[in-house]
Amino acid sequence: MFNRFASKAIIPVALSLTGFVVICSLILYSSIKADFLRDAVRQETSLADTVVSSTRYTMMTGDRKNLYHIIDSIGVQKGIEHLRIFNKDGVIMFSSDPGELNQVVDKTTAGCIECHSGPVPTVRLGSMQLARHFVNARDHNVLAITAPIYNDADCSAGDCHFHPSHQKVLGTLDIGLSTASLDSSLLALRWKMIVFCIMVLILSVGGVSALLRRNLLTPINQLLDYVKKVSEGTLENDFPRGVSEVETLGQSYFDMAREKHLAETTLIKAKKTDITTPEKDHKQGKK
Amino acid sequence: MFLRRKQKQSDLFTPVGTGLGQNQRRQEIQDRIQLLKKQIRNSKWWMALFFLVSLAAAVDFRFLPAIPETAKKFLGNAPPTTLISIALIVYAFSALILIMGHMNTGSVRFKGWSHIVYLSAFYLFYYYSGVLRDNFWPVFIAGLTILGLENYRVWSLCSEAIREEMKILNSLGK
């Protein structure tokens, strides 16, 4: 099977085309996924900043009741999985889930370790470093952002407050959004790319195979049949036509076979003449 | 190619018809067949080595110790993922073109070892950038395609050459 011309011509083309299209599609998918994720993180960072800005005044005035109310209202929005504010010691002071209140978060977990990996916590990180992706207890995929709440002149110089000016970070806001819509978009994209790959492969490999079959394989097979027929003794000029090289080959083979046939006929005639001539001579000699 | 050239040379210098010459020629053909079979075997071993490297990459080189901070400082920042991916596409494209070129020249030697080095380097670059898990499949498929095509090339040329040698060997036996 692998010795045949068809497989020798089609296998390398099909293999390299398939491989290359799949590699490009995978890289394209990976790049689009990274772009989607970066956009989602950017939006989430902006949302976290909005929450910090809108709660800043209530924090400064120490209006805890109002702050609880704001956190609850935002927390029940569709797509928000959790919203919590920690103090600088990692204790949850406000949360959309009342069961979490006053719990201490382990600083070595994802979302905390990024700043708390060294002896002195990092004050500023890039938005991608602040993001983390995990599956929560409700089995939802979550993309969470931890936004630090920085100390301000208003905070350290206010009459009612006690934050010293050297304290850079007062607490952290942690917001987690469900990635269900992002995941469904990526799944749809994945299927579209699979369909696109299959279509490209069918078109290219199928096209190459069909063209090879039409222009090369079928004429060669017809030529083989013709050669076999001529070898068996049928001298007809019905060799395959349409592909110039194959046609020339067929014509040459036909000419060669005809000349051979003519030569054979002449030889047979000559032999017959040779046989009959001595007989005649012999008869004439007797007379 | 080098085997065919060798064969032609041996055709020129071997005395035909003598028993000793025939035995010597038969031995030479058998040696060439062994060499061709070795090429096919070697190409399979290289493929197995690539699978082994890929297996290590699939588990994110978990068995390796973490890169020390001093080494990270010395090496500097990892190249952007997009750049590594573009390099992978360019590499895969040129490697496939090169293998197609080797198919035309008819060389039976396996030239896949350099591809294993390049592919392992891509795994390491993605690992160093911390995005190996997301980019494992493109490198694996690239390796599978390139080494698969190289293996097919060696196998098909060697099988053809072995068939030819066997024909000569059989004709000598008659």
Write the layout of secondary structure elements.
The complex is a heterodimer of chains A (287) and B (174).
Chain A: H1 5-61, H2 64-75, E1 80-87, E2 92-95, H3 113-116, H4 127-130, E3 131-135, E4 141-150, H5 153-157, E5 169-178, H6 180-231, H7 244-286
Antiparallel strand pairs in A: 1-2, 1-5, 3-4, 4-5
Helix pairs in contact in A: 1-6, 6-7
Chain B: H1 2-13, H2 19-58, H3 69-75, H4 81-105, H5 113-129, H6 132-173
Helix pairs in contact in B: 2-5, 2-6, 4-5, 4-6, 5-6
Write a structural description.
The complex is a heterodimer of chains A (287) and B (174). Chain A has 7 helices and 5 strands, in the order ααββααββαβαα. In chain A, helix 1 (5-61) packs antiparallel against helix 6 and helix 6 (180-231) packs parallel to helix 7 (244-286). Chain A has 287 residues and is of the alpha+beta class. The two termini of chain A are 72 Å apart. Chain A has a 5-stranded antiparallel β-sheet with strand order 2-1-5-4-3. Chain B has one domain. The relative contact order of chain B is 0.16.
